[in-house]
Amino acid sequence: MIYLDHQATTPLAPEAKVAMLPWLEGAEGTGFGNPHSSHRLGRQAAAAVEVAREQVAALLPEGGRVIFTSGATEALNMAIRGSRAGRERGVMAISAIEHSAVLRTAEAVAGKLAILPVGAEGLVDPQAELPQGVALVSVMQVNNEIGTIQPVDALGERARAAGALFVCDAVQGAGKIAPPAHADMIAITAHKMYGPKGIGALWIRDGVEIEPIVTGGGQEDGLRSGTLSPALCAGFGAAARLANERMEADAAHMDLLWARARELFGDWALNGSERHRWKGNLNLRREGLDVPRLMSDVRDVCFSAGSACASETKMPSRILGALGLSQAEARGSVRIGLGRYTTLEELEAAAAKINHAAHAQG
Q1: Which of 173, 303, 312, 318 could form a disulfide with 142 if both were Cys (CB 3.0 to 4.6 A apart)?
Q2: Which of 168, 233, 302, 309 does the annotation list as catalytic?
C-alpha cells in the first residue's frame, strides 16, 4: 500500500510514538496519573504536559499561550464562538475556501458574514475589501484541498487596522512553514504534522480575551475543561519538536518530490497556484475522468478525491468551484498528498498505476 493522502492525516512519527509510550503503558512511576491531580503521579503527568506545551509553542509566534484542545475543529470553534464577535453576533469575514470548521461555525454565529473571494489560482486578494464594522476575519494559511498558501500576514495587518481579530487555521502549514505573524489566534492539530489524532491547540495572542465554550473544571487556563491525555500531549510535543528541527529538510524533500511529480503527471492540469503553494499538495484534473472508478482501479494507492471530512457528501468540491472550475472539472480532480516519509520510488510506482488507470478510461 502506498500512502499519498497526507492532507487528510499523516503517519505517526516514530519519535512521537516513543514519547507517548510511557504514558500509555503505565510503567512504574509514570503512565496513568491525572495531570490535574496534586499527588506525585499527577505532578509527573502535568510536567509532561507542560513540556509538550513548550514544544508546541516553539512552532508559534512569541507573545501568546497554547491551549490544548481535541483538535483544530474545537480550536477554531473556541476562537470564533468564544470571541466577542461570536458572542455578540458581530460582522465576520472569511475566505471562500475556508475549511468547514470555520465556514459552518461562522455561519452559525455571525450577525453578518462576508465571503472574501479567491481568484483562479485559489488565492485571496491581500487587498480584498473588508466589510464595514468587521469584528473578526478568518483566513487559512494553507488550503487543505489545493495547497495554496494565502497572504495571511498582509490580511492579518489589514484586519488589525480595521479593529478586527484575525483567526488563522494553520493546520496544513504548522511545522512546515513559518507561522502567521499577525494572527490573534491560530489553530493547529497534531495529526497533520506526524503526531497523534485527537489533540490540537489554539494559540492566543497575549491580551486577546475569549470566553470558554466548554465549561466544567476549567483545566486549560479556564478556557477549556476536561482531563488532558498526557500521552497525546507528549506525542504532539514530540511531533512539534521534530517538525521544528526538520522544517528545512522536509521542505527540500517536498521540492524534490514535487519536481518529479510534475514530470510524472505532466499531462494533468494543476488546480491552484503553482508558485504560492505547499509542494506536498498536488490537486490535479483530467477532462472526463471518472474519479470513483479511478480510485476503485487503483486500490493499493491511497489518494483523495478532495477533503477527507467532505468525502461522504458526494458533491463537487466547493473549493474548486470557488476557483471558477465547472462541476465536471471539479469531479475530474484528485488530490495527491506527499509527506516526509514518501520516497521517490513510491511516488513513481503510484504515478504509474494512476496514469495507467486514467489513460485506460480514454
Answers
A1: 173
A2: 309
